[in-house]
Amino acid sequence: MKKLLCAGLAMTMALSLTACGGGNGGSNGGDSASAEGDVTNLTIWQPSDKESIENWWVEKLDEWNAEHPEIQVTRTAIDRSDSYAYDNKVATAVTSNDLPDILFVDGPQVSYYAANGITVPITKYFEDTSDFVDSTIAECTYDGELYAISATESSVALYYNKDYLTECGYDVSKLESYTVDNPITWSELAELAEQCTTDSYVGTHIIMDHGEGLPYALEPMYVSNGKDYISEDGATADGYVNSAEAVETTAYLADLIAKGYANVDPITDEFLNGACATEIQGSWDVTVLEDATFDWGVTYYPVSDNTGTPVSPCGDWAAAVTNNCSNVDAAGEFMQWLMSTENVASYSAAISKPAARSSAYEDEAMAAYQEYPLSVFKEQLENNAAPRPRTPSYATFSTAYAEAMTNIFSQAASNGAVEDSYIQEQLDGVVESFEEDYNTYYAE
Amino acid sequence: MSKRVQLSPRKKGERAAAYVFSLPAALLLVAFMVVPVIYTVYYSVFQYQVMRPNDISFVGLANYVKLLADSDFWLALKNTVYFTIIVVPTQCVLALALAMLVAKKFRGVSVFRTMYFSPQLTSMVVISVLWTVLYNSNPNTGLINSLLVGLGMDPINFLSNPKTAMNAIIFMSAWQGAGYQMMIFLAGLQGIPGEQYEAADVDGASPWQRFLYVTLPNLKGTIIYVITITMIQAMKLFTQPYVMTQGGPENATKTMVYYIYTEGFQKGNFGYACSAAAVFFVIVVAMSLIMQKITADK
Amino acid sequence: MLKSKKASAFMGKFLFYFGNIVIGIIFVSPLIWMISASLKPEALVFANMNSISTFLPAQASLDNYFEVFRRIDMVNVFKNTILYIALILVFDLVINSICGYALAKFDFRGKGAIMTLVVALMVMPMEAILLPLYIEMSQLGWVNTLQALVVPFIAKCFSIYMFQNFFRDIPNDLLEAASIDGSHPIGTFFKIVMPISKTVYATVFILDFVAHWNDFMWPFLVMTGEDKRTIQLAVQSFFSTSPVHYSAIMASLVVSAIPMIIMFVFMQKYYVEGIASSGIKG
Fold first, then answer.
1. What is the mean pLDDT of residues B112-133?
2. Strands B57-58 and B46-47
3. Architecture category of domain B47-297 in CATH
4. Is the pLDDT of residue A7 over 70?
5. Buried b vs exposed e over B260-283: b needs ≥16 C-beta within 10 Å?
6. Can you tell me the distance from the alpha carbon of C28 to that of B179, in angstroms, rounded to the nearest whole number?
7. Nearest residue to A48 via CA among A23, A78, A28, A24
8. Chains with ≥3 Cβ pairs under 8 A against B?
């Protein structure tokens, strides 16, 4: 019996070995900085993105590696179905100590990783950050230290189909007359949406990805109406995301859906496909709309009638150094180079996003941002961008908020109306999830 | 399956052969399924945030206490059971109906068989992505709603209404899976001796009686088999809510496996997710063993 | 009398075909729409939704397919996927079939335990043990290696179950005869049993090939790097990597289905027989 067991074990082992033999053995990619002799090898993880930026990396890293034989850098693009999938990948890598040296993290997640000690401060490599836009520095700072740095920013504005609006009898010149300090108000947007909702078009489009897209694109609505999602210190959501102001903001959005002015589950390219009159959408859509078969325009992010305070979304993926990096100085040196004005300009141009450094806009690569339509996004970033809450429990908040909004919007669409009490109940649920996570893991 | 005539076990070398043959698979199962299950049970008594692998604390049965008080857990269990109870008969009846439609040889029969089987040629992820678009609530962008509106009906918010979301997933799953079971039923139907039908015809049986007294009894074994494999699949429901609804709206499509996944990964409460997984394992394993007993006794 | 009987027979036949055609259309139309959308320019994917022409790509072109192949190194993706699935399947077919055979035809201590293990684990959902399994892989030092994709998935309860079901019905006389001729039980299996069991091998091959072709969560977590990308990860990258275009997504979905369609075309006989026969014995 014992002999048999041994034989069986041996066979299993042999099989496993054969399987290994077929592969390329040893691991790479996820390994930490390894110093062989005097050479430091750094790895970078970033979500995979459009072709032009993939090519940018290849070209730039060749350049860097040729000039710095002692610091060799490789980048790995991570495929993902959504932003949560990337977080899952990072989470598993944490359990097995397989994090790369440099990790790209989404702006609002910077605090989460920093608070858990996954990333390390990089303040000393970026002592003068005055050239970076305020919103990105705010987003990348946790507990007084800089934990990440971003080359790019993002922004959201209101796109409109000129041809169709004119057809509806809407005066497009009105939309063209808005300025960054005096944008379209909520009530004006609702009127527009009402006027332009027909059998074949809905009036507007709200990002509905059941994920991070919702809290990202909608937060300025809340800030503009007087209350952010979470307190300034990131410790509580009670009295913020469930405040009377927040309920009012949510009710406004739910009303657009209840009345059929916006779809509850729109397809991503609804605007491009000529199925909605306007859309609240990110700067990246400018590139997508090059294929549009109609004339379109962009105006500033809508503002609350109550306060008239214009606020716009911002935040983007930022580079951070992980606790798995054995040569933080080398990583710091590389990041300084990566974030130089010249690199930021060409990087931003390649990825079609607004640059996070003011000086980068003087570069030829960023020339398009001096002109309409991209200038709209640049103006917003320079004037009224509000970063998402900085709290280590952001991941929990984001999931809970997206879930609550999905519920509220689905109620709106199914019943043609939503009670404020239901909105209150859902937002209270968000607070509860947030507080539980925060109090369990981060409260003093 | 226990009552079987065995080979004479006296044959020398047979016992050795039995171990050489069965141990590799058994050891691999232990190494890569039993061990993870043991890990699951182990971690279920700890508070373990995935981002803090160095900060794990023993909490005894606290996770279980919290779990049993968590309404989302019970809802996920209810949803899983609901899905199983509805999808198993729907899919099996549909599959049997399809099999009877194409059981006889007629011109073009293989074309129809291929048509019914075709959803099987793509993966569940592909099907889920595709149907999310087809189910779109806007008649201008959603194929099914455009059809409904064309027929003079009101559009339905299939995936964004808690009342319809799970049923929409059930319909899609049955559509995808029925072709496979149809093939199994087809073989069962072809195995029924023709004389039995002839005898029924002599007795003047109606088509319904033929079905009830000849077809069904002959298919008993096949039906039990099909129900078993469909149930096993149904209890594991994950891909469809993961791709199509993220468990919503109002948790209407949050299944057990999806619940375990979101708790463990998205929220990072690994220890807690393990307690949910452990409870779920007990339920499905018990179910599987009971099903096995029923099948063996028949 | 005769005439009316003929008429009703014709009517019955008409209804029969009509029913089959209607149901057939319900079954294939989503797939036709997917293929049609994959041939359209993005701005027209959702145009003319309310007419039959949505199924006919008006300005058909293969541009979306070119885009898929340009954005992703599909040759490498197919190579990676087929390599790891082939490795799994080779071991899968051998190890699970001999185990199924032992459970079906041999009497030995521990048989009941193994049978219970197989039945109990058959219902275990992979997604629920992902993280523990990942932790085990990292303890073995297998993260980001081929063996993490292959070794844990060789033994499969359902395959063992299928084999056991099939082998059970092989007549004992045949095996007795072989053993009287002096054949060792192991030799008997490889020389006599295996050659007459092609259908069950084909079935398990097809089922497991399809199952692994659809893997996405595990390869995503355990493998890192574009050069190691498997097919479903490549498809997923179209969902989130800008520009997110339905036309390109649909084209990538079609591309990912091609191997399964090819397999169906070439192995149709085994496909049908194999799947069908699995249920007869129940």
1. 87
2. antiparallel
3. Orthogonal Bundle (1.10)
4. no
5. bbbbbbbbbbbbbbbbbbbbbbee
6. 11
7. A78
8. A, C
Q: What CATH architecture is A7-154+315-383?
A: 3-Layer(aba) Sandwich (3.40)
Residue in B with minimal Cα distance to A85 = B266
Cα B253 versus chain centre, distance: 15
Q: A residues 72-131 near C, CB within 8 Å?
A: 76-83, 85, 88-89, 92, 95-98
A13-45, pLDDT tens digit by residue?
A: 444 444 433 333 333 444 445 555 689 999 999
A149 touches chain B (CB under 8 A): no
- By C-alpha distance, the chain B residue nearest A212 is B266
Q: Which residues of C touch B112 (CB under 8 A)?
A: 20, 24
Burial category of A396 from C-beta neighbours within 10 Å (exposed 0-12, middle 13-18, buried 19 and up): buried
Which residue do the tokens 């399956």 mark?
B1
User: Which two three-digit tokens encode residue A77?
Assistant: 């693009």
Polymer length of chain B: 298
Query: Is the separation of the CB atoms in A234 and C4 below 8 Å?
Result: no
Q: Nearest-CA neighbor of C92 among B28, A442, A212?
A: B28
Instruction: List the CATH code of the domain at A156-311+393-441.
Output: 3.40.190.10
Q: Which of C33, C121, C130, C239 to mutate against chain B (most B CBs within 10 Å)? A: C121
Residue A314, pLDDT above cutoff 90: yes
How does the average pLDDT of chain A come out, rounded?
Answer: 88
- For chain B, the domains span 47-297
How far, in Å, CA of C140 to CA of C148, rounded?
9
CA A82/CA B7 separation, integer angstroms = 56
Q: Quick check: ipTM above 0.90?
A: no
Across the interface, whether the CB atoms of C264 and B121 are under 8 A apart is answered yes
Per-residue pLDDT tens for B45-74? 999 988 888 888 999 999 999 999 999 999
Q: With contacts defined as CB-CB under 8 Å, which chain B residues touch A109?
A: none
| CA distance readout (Å), C129 to B275, B283, C134 | 12, 15, 8
Neighbours of chain A (3+ CB pairs under 8 A): B, C
φ, ψ for residue A357, nearest 5 deg: -110, 135
Per-window interface: C 104-143 vs A, CB < 8 A: 131, 134-135, 137-138, 141, 143
Is A394's Cβ below 8 Å from some Cβ in B? no
Instruction: State mean pLDDT over A257-272.
Output: 90
Contact call for B13 and C119, based on CB within 8 A: no
- Higher-confidence residue: A163 or C229? A163
Mind telling me how many Å the CA of A112 is from chain B's nearest CA?
9
Q: How far is CA C237 from CA C68, C107, C197, in A?
A: 10, 50, 40
In this structure, the strands spanning B57-58 and A102-105 are unpaired
**Can you spell out the DSSP letters for C211-250?**
HHHT--HHHHHH--SGGG--HHHHHHHHHHSSS--HHHHH
Name the residue among C19, C103, C271 with its Cβ closest to that of B101: C19
Question: pLDDT in tens for each of the 282 residues of chain C?
Answer: 456 777 778 888 888 888 889 999 989 989 998 999 999 888 888 877 777 777 887 778 898 999 889 888 889 999 999 999 999 999 999 999 999 999 999 989 999 999 999 988 888 888 888 889 999 999 999 999 999 999 999 999 989 988 998 898 888 888 888 888 888 888 889 988 999 888 889 888 888 888 898 888 899 889 888 788 888 888 888 887 767 788 888 999 999 988 888 887 777 777 777 666 665 543
Torsion from C-alpha of C187, C192, C195, C201, nearest 10 degrees = -70
Q: Does the pLDDT of residue B23 top 50, yes or no?
A: yes
Nearest CA in chain A to C226: A77
Residues of chain A with CATH 3.40.190.10: 7-154+315-383, 156-311+393-441
